[in-house]
């Protein structure tokens, strides 16, 4: 062992008194933490046509349960109709008893056009002509960072002929029913339109690996707590005088422990804005795409553009519009060449309009699976992208999945299939639930969406009752198109808040 | 003669008149403070006489030594470990109150632990071979078996082990490497009171200490450190007198005891680590840091030589041995040994007498430019005769400043003026003569016969009332100089008893009480016995009931 006498130098004053050490360290922890940015809220609306594609009745397989309660664990299909949502059960809330009340002010016997015209705006239409604006537009005005920022962009979720405009189910509207902010059907052009002005800096550096001093500093509070317990254990064996000595030291331990509470987590990295490259888009000159042969690749490309548009703050409101209401083939959901909707017609099948239009719920549910599959992919992608505050982009984005009808088979306007996801802080009762209220309107849903985004709205769209909305109590409100026993002149357009 | 040999002899002698001292194998109810015979000896009857001890934090020296032993010299102790605060009552730095933690001390202990922990990863391959081959919880347990036991001076309890394992697990869970996680374990370990404190379980009136407690007492007394692995291994058998004697002897004769032995003599005599900064360069222009260091080393070599080479109380007080390097040779006016070397020399027996004339002690008991007959005289009365002089009045210095003095006063002139004041004479009449006998040594221990004024130094005097105790009058010692005074004091039984008392105070870190007289008598007997050495006296304390038992009162 080395001699260390020369290193052991007491601080000794004349006369032999040992001097006390000065305080050598400031009370602040040795590790500093960077500041973080606040993240804006966003809204994404997902739309599909025809509502619940099976039912009403025993074939209705959309609802996870009949009462309010938890959804199954992640990995278990919440219902046959929503099977593809199984990986995200913990991120969603499904709603039951949501009706489109204002549709009954249109006088539209067929019901589909009026439903389409009112499902997103909840405004009394002029016959079947919508009056807008829709929920995405209203939210977009409030959420955008400036008047110059894009808002309420509508991104097609399915492919269409290159020279064909998307005209089916144009449910997204501006003020007075004007056209919504529909984006190009060409995904390459979409990328150029959205991201041409986005300047992306170097990727954020990975968080530094904690040093050993960082680890020791992070454990200070915990170790001091253990030390205090050690004092308690030791003193129990001692005489009172020795206990008093240790108690004095233990008090200083506790005082010090208070200054070293559990430190905050390390600062998060910046948002990972990564605009897609046009080279990532498959060759769009596709033949035979109207049957959905390329919808897998197309939908994924579109979802990526939507997600990055939020991450790069190109916009704060967007819609994913599965617009093909007439004759999508959903060929990706069946074994090759076996989709009944290649020879048949999807729309007709929902209505059960004879052979060769297969009305079986199994096939219809399979086809519907396309929407649930890409809703899940959207949620997963939002969850995978980091926002500027270090949280998931999904945590700052409310996602609303809604349709134009409750039951497509008869154009019924009750029991709309509504799914909410994201923005988990706005769900006071958490997510992973199915909520069965008495009855709520779509206007109730959209008012609540606006409150969840920071507003104070209690209604959305037209207000009052059906009779006050049309100005007549003798109007034929077509009750047979709505919830049995609910629709009459006095039916309110809003029923109140939903238990979220 | 080993400690046990003289103790056995004492028993043989004492049994002739029915009085016995020493160790009993099992505790029995103490009979209270022992009675005293007419010749002053205490009757230590057939009962155990334990000593009360106080829980205390490790001193800075003990902490530094303990880190060295704990980690095989591979980790350095931290300079942030809090030192002592306040003034010692006994003179010994291990007093409990001196080492109490202040408001910032808890945080300093935390930083000190981290400083050591930060060094662990680099040393881990040598400290823990399994860290390379199998870095897992089994390896952590191996670490705790060795280093946890060393740190706590006993095997860990299950709860203590689990606490430290949890620290390791927290490190792994946070993504830390094995070595980083082990560093966190060390950080935790070094902050625990089981490491930082010497604390023994309550005893009530009397309790025999277990082997691990005895190992701690032995180790901290003789090496200012935690027990080494050999002592820990012997711990289960330390309740056997032969085992404790063997271990005490082993430690005392090892180099690990050097600093604690030197510390005993320094703190007993008030000999500080002399610094050239404490001396006036106008008076001592050549006394630089190197000379001060040589002076300090010379003192340590002297006292260790007394311990290691059969020094007795007489030789301690009367020898003319000294250790010189080139610097010390120049100070003492001697031929210098070869550069960089030390030599044991014999000094002039008309000038030098044992420890009190070691230059470091003389320099410590002095002012920056002048000697201090008060400091040196106080040492003789308080530390060599163990007399309680009480505290000076709070305005003592102010009073002194008003005392008229003749021009260029000698030491005796000043002393006479002070002693003439009634409020000063009670203590100074007792102290000053001894200190005045040593006026021929200046503020750095150099020999002189005149003051700087040219006036001759008169070293003659009378040391009054030596050896007095309640009911027994003391006697005066008349001397011609310090040498004759020390010759007489070396023959005084009171001095032997006082040195024994100092060994007791050093061992137990507190003033003695009436309950401790048997232990002190046992040590004194070792000093006074024919052939009794200083090392015998130090070992003798380990053979007493006071060392092997404890009480709370």
Layout: helices, strands, pairs:
The complex is a heterodimer of chains A (about 500) and B (about 550).
Chain A: E1 42-48, E2 69-70, E3 92-99, H1 112-118, H2 135-143, E4 153-156, E5 181-182, H3 187-195, H4 212-218, H5 220-235, H6 240-259, H7 295-311, E6 317-321, H8 340-343, H9 346-351, H10 361-384, E7 397-403, E8 418-422, E9 433-441, H11 442-452, H12 466-470
Parallel strand pairs in A: 1-6, 1-7, 3-9, 4-5, 4-6
Antiparallel strand pairs in A: 2-9, 3-8, 7-8
Chain B: H1 3-14, E1 35-36, E2 42-43, E3 51-52, E4 56-57, H2 60-70, H3 105-117, H4 120-127, H5 130-133, H6 137-152, H7 158-173, H8 178-189, H9 193-196, E5 197-198, E6 207-208, H10 211-223, H11 229-234, H12 241-253, H13 258-269, H14 289-308, H15 313-318, E7 321-324, H16 326-332, E8 343-346, H17 359-364, H18 373-384, H19 396-402, H20 411-419, H21 422-436, E9 461-466, E10 475-479, H22 482-490, H23 493-508, H24 517-528, H25 534-541, H26 545-548, E11 549-551
Parallel strand pairs in B: 3-11
Antiparallel strand pairs in B: 1-2, 4-5, 6-11, 7-8, 9-10
Helix pairs in contact in B: 1-25, 3-8, 6-7, 7-8, 10-12, 10-13, 13-14, 18-21, 20-21, 23-24, 24-25
Any key phrases for this structure?
heterodimer; A: 500 residues; alpha/beta; Alkaline Phosphatase, subunit A; nine-stranded mixed beta sheet; 12 helices; 9 strands; disordered N terminus; B: 553 residues; mainly alpha; two-stranded antiparallel ribbon; 6% strand; globular
């Amino acid at each position: 062992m080395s001699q260390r006498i020369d290193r052991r130098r007491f601080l000794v004053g004349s006369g032999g008194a040992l001097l006390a050490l000065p305080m050598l360290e400031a009370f602040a922890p040795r590790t500093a933490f960077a500041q973080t940015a606040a993240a804006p809220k966003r809204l994404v609306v997902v739309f599909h046509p025809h509502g619940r594609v099976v039912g009403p009745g025993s074939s209705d397989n959309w609802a996870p349960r009949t009462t309010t309660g938890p959804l199954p664990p992640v990995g278990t299909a919440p219902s046959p109709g929503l099977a593809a949502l199984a990986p995200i059960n913990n991120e969603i809330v499904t709603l039951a008893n949501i009706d489109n009340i204002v549709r009954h002010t249109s006088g539209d016997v067929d019901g589909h056009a009026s439903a389409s015209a009112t499902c997103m705006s909840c405004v009394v239409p002029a016959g079947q002509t919508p009056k807008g604006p829709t929920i995405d537009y209203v939210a977009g005005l409030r959420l955008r960072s400036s008047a110059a920022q894009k808002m309420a962009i509508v991104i097609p979720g399915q492919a269409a002929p290159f020279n064909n405009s998307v005209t089916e189910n144009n449910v997204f509207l501006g003020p007075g029913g004007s056209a919504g902010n529909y984006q190009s059907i060409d995904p390459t052009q979409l990328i150029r339109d959205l991201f041409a002005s986005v300047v992306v800096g170097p990727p954020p550096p990975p968080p530094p690996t904690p040093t050993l001093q960082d680890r020791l500093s992070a454990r200070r509070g915990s170790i001091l707590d253990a030390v205090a317990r050690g004092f308690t254990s030791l003193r129990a064996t001692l005489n009172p005088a020795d206990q008093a000595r240790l108690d004095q030291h233990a008090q200083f331990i506790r005082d010090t422990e208070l200054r070293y509470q559990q430190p905050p987590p390390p600062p998060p990295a910046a948002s990972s804005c990564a605009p897609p490259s046009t080279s990532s888009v498959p060759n769009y000159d596709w033949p035979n795409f109207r049957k959905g042969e390329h919808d897998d690749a197309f939908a994924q490309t579109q979802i990526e553009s939507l997600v990055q548009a939020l991450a790069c703050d190109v916009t704060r409101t967007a819609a994913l519009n599965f617009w093909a209401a007439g004759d999508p083939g959903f060929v990706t959901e069946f074994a090759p060449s076996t989709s009944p909707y290649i020879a048949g017609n999807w729309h007709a099948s929902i209505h059960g309009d004879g052979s060769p239009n297969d009305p079986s719920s199994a096939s219809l549910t399979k086809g519907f699976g396309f929407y649930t599959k890409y809703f899940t992919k959207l949620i997963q992608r939002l969850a995978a992208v980091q926002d500027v505050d270090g949280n998931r982009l999904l945590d700052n984005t409310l996602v609303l999945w809604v349709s134009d009808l409750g039951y497509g088979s008869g154009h019924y306007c009750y029991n709309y299939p509504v799914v909410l996801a994201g923005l988990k802080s706005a769900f006071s009762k958490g997510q992973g639930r199915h909520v069965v209220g008495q009855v709520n309107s779509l206007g109730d849903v959209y008012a609540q969406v606006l409150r969840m985004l920071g507003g104070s709205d209690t209604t959305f769209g037209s207000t009052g009752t059906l009779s006050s909305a049309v100005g007549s109590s003798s109007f034929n409100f077509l009750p047979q198109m709505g919830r049995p026993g609910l629709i009459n002149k006095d039916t309110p357009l809003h029923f109140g808040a939903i238990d979220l | 003669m080993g400690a046990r040999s003289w103790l056995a002899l004492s028993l043989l002698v004492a049994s002739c008149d029915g009085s016995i001292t020493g160790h009993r194998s099992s505790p029995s109810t103490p009979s209270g403070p022992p009675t005293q015979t007419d010749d002053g000896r205490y009757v230590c009857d057939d009962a155990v006489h334990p000593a009360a001890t106080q829980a205390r934090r490790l001193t800075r020296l003990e902490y530094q030594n303990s880190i060295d032993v704990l980690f095989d010299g591979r980790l350095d102790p931290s300079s942030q470990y809090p030192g002592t605060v306040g003034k010692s009552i006994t003179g010994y730095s291990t007093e409990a109150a001196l080492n109490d933690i202040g408001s910032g001390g808890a945080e300093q202990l935390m930083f000190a632990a981290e400083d050591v922990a930060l060094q662990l990863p680099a040393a881990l391959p040598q400290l823990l071979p399994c860290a390379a081959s199998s870095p897992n919880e089994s390896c952590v347990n191996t670490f705790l078996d060795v280093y946890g036991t060393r740190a706590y001076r006993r095997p860990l309890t299950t709860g203590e082990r689990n606490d430290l394992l949890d620290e390791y697990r927290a490190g792994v869970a946070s993504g830390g490497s094995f070595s980083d996680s082990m560093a966190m374990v060390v950080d935790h370990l070094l902050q625990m009171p089981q490491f930082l404190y010497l604390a023994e379980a309550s005893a009530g009136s009397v309790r025999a200490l277990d082997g691990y407690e005895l190992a701690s007492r032995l180790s901290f007394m003789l090496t200012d450190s935690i027990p080494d692995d050999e002592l820990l291994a012997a711990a289960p058998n330390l309740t056997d007198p032969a085992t404790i004697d063997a271990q005490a002897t082993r430690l005392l004769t090892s180099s690990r005891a050097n600093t604690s032995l030197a510390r005993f003599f320094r703190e007993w005599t008030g000999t500080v680590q002399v610094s050239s900064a404490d001396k006036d360069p106008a008076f001592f222009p050549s006394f630089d840091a190197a000379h001060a260091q040589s002076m300090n080393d010379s003192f340590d070599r002297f006292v260790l030589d007394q311990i290691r080479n059969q020094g007795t109380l007489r030789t301690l007080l009367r020898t003319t041995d000294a250790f010189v390097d080139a610097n010390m040779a120049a100070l003492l006016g001697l031929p210098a040994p070869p550069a960089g070397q030390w030599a044991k020399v014999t000094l002039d027996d008309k000038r030098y007498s044992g420890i009190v004339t070691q230059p470091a002690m003389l320099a410590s008991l002095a002012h920056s430019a002048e000697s201090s007959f008060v400091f040196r005289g106080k040492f003789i009365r308080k530390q060599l005769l163990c007399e309680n002089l009480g505290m000076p009045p709070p305005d003592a210095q102010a009073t002194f400043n008003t005392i008229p003095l003749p021009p260029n006063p000698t030491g005796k002139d000043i002393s006479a003026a002070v002693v003439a004041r009634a409020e000063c004479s009670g203590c100074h009449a007792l102290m000053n003569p001894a200190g005045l006998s040593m006026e021929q040594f200046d503020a750095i221990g150099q020999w002189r016969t005149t003051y700087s004024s040219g006036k001759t130094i008169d070293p003659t005097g009378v040391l009054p009332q030596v050896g007095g105790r309640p009911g027994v009058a003391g006697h005066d010692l008349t001397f011609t100089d310090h040498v004759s005074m020390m010759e007489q004091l070396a023959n005084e039984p009171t001095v032997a008893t006082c040195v024994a008392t100092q060994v007791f105070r050093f061992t137990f870190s507190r003033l003695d009480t009436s309950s401790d007289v048997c232990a002190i008598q046992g040590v004194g007997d070792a000093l006074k016995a024919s052939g009794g050495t200083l090392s015998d006296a130090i070992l003798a304390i380990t053979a007493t009931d006071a060392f092997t038992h404890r009480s709370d009162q």
